[in-house]
């Protein structure tokens, strides 16, 4: 008595592969869109944290820090946050105070090129 080997036919395999391809083509654009959105949200939060730390430093010391590393040295931050778009903590654009009598870093912007999902440039966030 011979046992017949059971397996999948070529047609069955093609149908399964077509279904998987259809599901992947629906899911991938949503995944990458949500990934970009999460980077924008993380960037805005990192900018907020740095700006609050700059304000606290100024309120405590009466002057702005010379660099962001000074915020870390004086324990206003554990570490300089990364820009999630450029994936670096060295690409921040440091803006000086408007008052020439108060030197130092008064504000910070992202150095990432391009536009956020809402159409604004990363530099304007």
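-> sequence recovered:
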């Amino acid at each position: 008595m011979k046992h017949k080997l059971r397996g999948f036919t070529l047609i069955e395999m093609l149908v399964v592969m077509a279904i998987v391809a259809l599901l992947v083509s629906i899911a991938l654009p949503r995944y990458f869109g949500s990934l970009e959105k999460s980077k924008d949200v993380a960037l805005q939060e990192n900018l907020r944290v740095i700006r609050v730390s700059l304000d606290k430093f100024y309120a405590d010391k009466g002057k702005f820090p010379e660099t962001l590393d000074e915020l870390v040295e004086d324990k206003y931050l554990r570490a300089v946050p990364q820009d999630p778009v450029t994936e670096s903590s060295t690409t921040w654009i440091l803006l000086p105070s408007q008052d020439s009598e108060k030197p130092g870093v008064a504000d910070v912007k992202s150095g990432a090129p391009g536009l956020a999902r809402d159409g604004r440039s990363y530099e304007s966030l």
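The longest strand covers residues 105-109.
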